[in-house]
């Protein structure tokens, strides 16, 4: 994770230096400045989070050119609305900006590296094997050549050789105008729009509108793909939907509705295995294992089910000399000279991968003791182990307070003269039972701390969700799911007394959930234990902990993970 952050910092520094904009930031696939987000969706954005250092610099330089040479308001006003046209228009504008890069060896080398990386990525995803994908792929490289950016390798030339001849007759005149107008964004938009329209019309002749839009998404030019039908991923107030992925999201969430904190001096974060003596944890682990054996579902069986939900197949290369599949362009000569061309084809090599991270946040308040905390520990432990077996990154976190009725935080408030409207007056205790980098087997003893309830006191759910949300955002997996295990509203007596508002924490809790649901890339859901949370969470399921857990119980939980 440290390497990822270091890479992000280097990329942001390069972005600011080349673009000349000191406010520029790059977070994953989001380019942000003090004036907002760029509307140009570069093809290279699909590489974010998966690139080496050289490609990372190229990604920064490519986006820096957009920042330097693109007027975002003008781009939005000129941009087509039809999915394929929008894809092509954005690509051409990206290439226009890139063609204006300064004649510096480092920048040119970086841009070439990111182009080659994207070409490999696109071919690996089978882009050039579909009708619409091949059209867009070909016109991309034809535009690169016209704008002086050149082709990348012989394989590209082989793939586009046939469609290039056909497209040249259709869009050759407009391609020529691209190079003539590349220094003028508005003038450039005219031939770019014409090319986009002509390619879209050609695609419409060979496929349905729905299939064409799907192929455009498969081409992976837009991030996220559902922007194909939208307005650039922006909310009604002009704020990008994913703004909560920004570094300031914790503060933005904490201050909702005027929520604030009197003091954080006494808040603590501990590992589960730091809560109790080793002898207690060993005994608790033994008791927990007995409970797990008594349930009627195994972690292995659940892991197989979760693997089917979360896994995707990713192309890693090609298997050549196959009896069927896609024609291998390097062996086309054999198609004429060989009587039985059984080895002229290639098949994509596919590997099953998981690109999801799941955080399980457990309410460790005193009220949870009344709802069969033993079964709750079984559920969390089994689910974490099953996620491990399914190859899904996961964390198990807990939240409570470090003392009853405000503790030392309340005493500090009294010493300060009991100022009005103090906000949260409590000592928070956050527990990491299992972090994302620790496999279940090494976290077994730490997870067993849930089977001991001496640390179960009161709860401040809103801040706990913000904490878990921030940890989840820091993980590299593109899909992120936060599951909150709760028995209802938060309760902390010190804060209720100091503020005089018994709903202070509950109101903030609901506001935090609503903001994450509406504007965060994190999917948030709830396991409801002994109380309804339907009024707070849009996605929740009730779990009955009064009986032995069965496959049916876990099946109901799986609904939270399905899109």
CATH topology assignment of the largest domain: Rossmann fold
Distance between the termini: 27 Å
Question: What is the alpha-carbon Rg in Å?
Answer: 28 Å
How much helix, percentage-wise, in residues?
Answer: 40-55%
User: What gross morphology would you assign?
Assistant: globular
Mean pLDDT: 79
The tally of helices reads 20
Report the biggest beta sheet as strand number plus sense, adding barrel if it closes.
7 strands, mixed
What's the CATH class of the largest domain, please? Alpha Beta
Question: Can you describe this structure?
Answer:
- The protein is of the alpha/beta class and 563 residues long.
- It has three domains: 2-233, no CATH class; 249-258 and 273-307 and 355-408 and 420-558, Rossmann fold, CATH 3.40.50.410; 319-351, no CATH class.
- It is built from 20 helices and 13 strands.
- The strands form three sheets. Strands 4-10-9-8-11-12-13 form a seven-stranded mixed sheet, sandwiched between helices. Strands 1-2-3 form a three-stranded antiparallel sheet.
- α7 (154-181) packs across α8 (185-206).
- It is globular and about 75 Å long.
- 40% of the residues are buried.
